[in-house]
What we know:
The protein is α/β, with parallel strands linked by helices. The strands form two sheets. It has an eight-stranded parallel beta sheet with strand order 1-2-3-4-5-6-7-8. Strands 9-10 form a two-stranded antiparallel sheet. It is globular. 36% of the residues lie in helices and 15% in strands. The protein has two domains: 3-7 and 30-262 and 299-331, Metal-dependent hydrolases (TIM Barrel, Alpha-Beta Barrel); 265-296, no CATH class. Helix 9 (210-216) packs parallel to helix 10 (236-245) and helix 10 packs across helix 11. The mean pLDDT is 93.
Amino acid sequence: MNPNDYKQTKLELTEGDYRVLEVIGDFVPDNVFDAHAHLNPPGGLSNEQQTYETYREWMGPLLGNPSNIRLNALAEVTGPRATSIEGRREINEYLCDQLVKAPNCVGSAFFGPEETEEQIAEMLSRPRMVGIKCYATTTTNPNRNAVAIGDFLSEAQWTVANQLKRPICLHMMRPKALSDPDNLAYIQKMTARYPDAKLVLAHCARGFAGWNTIEAIDKIAHIDNVWYDISAICEVGTIASTIMRTAGKKVMWGSDFPVCKYRGCSLSMGDSFLWITGATYATLEPTLEEKGLKPCLYTLQTMLAFKQTATLLNLDRTQVEDIFYNNAMNLYGLKD
Ligand SMILES: [Zn+2]
């Protein structure tokens, strides 16, 4: 990979980014399917708009300019629009427009507990709107740490996903994530009740605190309709646990775009986790940049973790290509 290719990104790169890009080298295949990329409409929290084109401009060079980039484009899940049925409809209509302009992509529409089966089925009848995205911003519970999955992933969403054999992308809440007994029991119960729905556990089952996934994954790894995306995970053990327990066939790469604009990483700390951030979030005082430290782009940190995992597990090229592309093609029912 020629460093001049990286320079085509519209993101500002540091010396540290270049060094990590050199380590990543040609790890990323020429076919990439990003199973977790948000395309947010204008007027959201960051007041920025994402399209397939902005994805290609920002991410393409970081991925080594693959000739084929497909997305599972997720709806916006934060900001004031997320909390009402009308707002979510607006978000989903924007996503429908984006899918028309990006015929190699699929999308996942955003629903809360209020949408009816008819409303969900109508949205999933739109061209290439293949999946469901749910998120805790749709609940009225102000304490996110207490939110149960069933508070925002409704029976109606499961029913339609099951009827249409579609995926549901779930970012679960609660500090212990997959190791939370209620979360675990819920996943076991609902995947059995709706065997044709495909449950994708985002962020390695929200394994930002790695032990929560590693400890509990054996209890669900045998379930046919459970999948994982590795988006936003910066730690080898967490990624490795999903690959090792599914023979690498149920795991998909994802970027959590547009998080590629931020710097830092997420680290397990005891049984919890910590976001180490650059000045963009400025949650640490003094910021890392004020200390003369500039973390590399978050996206590069996650790619580095995946490459380390692949190296340690001796994944061959086919297995790496499965995680970057083929597994998502299977899940979303696509053929080249
Ligand atoms: Zn996300």
